[in-house]
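Checklist before submission:
- one chain only
- standard amino acids only
- sequence pasted in full

Submission:
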Amino acid sequence: MDDTGVSLLLDELSDLIEDGKAAIGNKDRRQIDAGVAHEIIDEIRQRFPEELAESRKVLRERDDLLADAEMEGNRIIEDARNQALIIASEQEIVRIAQSQAEQILREAREAERQVRSGAEDYADNVLSHIQSTLETLTDNINRSRERLNNRGIR
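Returned file contents:
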């Protein structure tokens, strides 16, 4: 997430609370501009669905890549089988065709494995980044709540 994300909004909310004027007779309570706080909270609510939509999009892209790789692999395998059947008229030609088909199958499976691995690595990296961002947000929320709770204890 960049500096315009939910994390920055949580920092703004935390600053708003910390910069609030101490209430008369109770320095642990703060007077803040509720309108500003609600605006920040509303923006946070808008940003969370964007983050979730982005992760869903990444998963769909990964699934599409995997489906395309599987279709391409199946097409290559089918092409190899068809080629082997057409060439299979004489014994030596049949042996050569089978050898070539097996090589094509190995290459197709390797290509499919590489595409699948790359797609899964990409999706894992994006999901890892989103997880890290969400963990940072959770930590920020917990710290803000802890500060509020600590002020209430005094």
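Reviewer check: The helical segments are 6-19, 34-87, 91-153.
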